[in-house]
């Protein structure tokens, strides 16, 4: 349990102290990344404090939008409960008993169709259906790899795209990385990992146990055409 808490604290420090796009270090009051020019998320105020508490509690963070959606969700729940109560009250006050009229039913005699006896068919020579082929595990091929469940580690980030518009671009980039010869290429949702800034589709290559192993593969990723590739910790 102590190890998990320490990992979450390191993930919070990494999210607050680096650029979510390129991974460059940032100052506490810095508003734009000095490496890529990205508009950095604020780390002071109520929402960042709530974000850190969420990560310490659950180990992941859905995004800042959740705090804006909670009041709307509460109003919707209260409205639905009121509508159900009104409907049930009206139904109980206006209940009526209906008696269906009876009618006589005439049953016709069934028509008997004579059966014909044909020549017996030898089924021993009929062809047998082929055995079905087992399907491969979903998402296991290169370019569609999923990050292993409940596993922390390091990887090489090829490119990150905003979730609002970047899903197709992320898929195209993952296919490009696989065709370039990179191994273990896939896409992950940054909101599911405490060490990443939420709101991005991250195209990654490789699953490593240490930062040193990930750093050793950065040159290969850049040589495959991804000049901005860098190593990054992946922690829930």
CATH class of the domain at 153-234: Alpha Beta
Number of strands: 4
Let me know the largest β-sheet. 4 strands, antiparallel
How much β-strand is present in the residues? Answer: 5-15%
Radius of gyration: 30 Å
* Class from helix and strand fractions: alpha+beta
Average pLDDT level: 78
Distance between the termini: 14 Å
Strand arrangement in the largest pleated sheet: 2-3-1-4
Instruction: Tell me the CATH superfamily of the domain at 153-234.
Output: Sporulation related repeat
Overall morphology: globular
Number of helices: 5
Please name the CATH architecture of the domain at 153-234.
2-Layer Sandwich
Low-confidence stretches: 95-100, 128-139
**Percent helix:** 25-40%
- Run of helices and strands: HHHEHEEHE
CATH-derived topology of the domain at 153-234: Alpha-Beta Plaits
Explained architecture:
This protein has 236 residues and is an alpha+beta fold. Among the domains are: 2-67, no CATH class; 153-234, Alpha-Beta Plaits (2-Layer Sandwich). 36% of the residues lie in helices and 12% in strands. The protein is built from five helices and four strands. The chain has helices at 2-17, 46-58, 65-93, 167-179, 211-223, and strands spanning 153-162, 185-189, 200-208, 230-234. Strands 2-3-1-4 form a four-stranded antiparallel β-sheet. The longest helix has 29 residues, at 65-93. The radius of gyration is 30 Å and the shape is globular. Residues 95-100 and 128-139 have low confidence and may be disordered.
């Amino acid at each position: 349990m102590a190890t998990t808490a320490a990992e979450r604290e390191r993930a919070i420090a990494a999210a607050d102290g680096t650029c979510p796009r390129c991974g460059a270090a940032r100052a506490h009051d810095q508003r734009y990344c000095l490496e890529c020019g990205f508009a950095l998320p604020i780390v002071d105020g109520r929402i960042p404090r709530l974000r850190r508490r969420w990560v310490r509690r659950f180990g992941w963070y859905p995004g800042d939008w959740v705090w804006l959606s909670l009041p709307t969700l509460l109003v919707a729940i209260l409205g639905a409960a009121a509508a159900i109560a009104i409907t049930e009250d009206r139904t109980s006050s206006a209940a009526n008993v209906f008696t269906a009229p009876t009618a006589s039913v005439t049953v016709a005699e069934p028509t008997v169709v004579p059966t014909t006896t044909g020549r017996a068919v030898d089924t021993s020579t009929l062809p047998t259906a082929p055995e079905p082929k087992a399907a491969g595990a979903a998402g296991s091929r290169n370019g569609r790899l999923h990050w292993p469940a409940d596993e922390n580690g390091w990887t090489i980030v090829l490119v990150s795209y905003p979730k609002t518009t970047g899903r197709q671009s992320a898929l195209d980039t993952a296919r490009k990385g696989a065709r370039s010869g990179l191994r273990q290429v896939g896409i992950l949702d940054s909101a599911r990992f405490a060490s990443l800034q939420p709101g991005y589709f991250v195209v990654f290559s490789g699953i490593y146990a240490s930062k040193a192993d990930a750093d050793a593969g950065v040159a290969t990723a850049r040589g495959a055409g991804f000049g901005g590739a860098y190593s990054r910790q992946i922690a829930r």
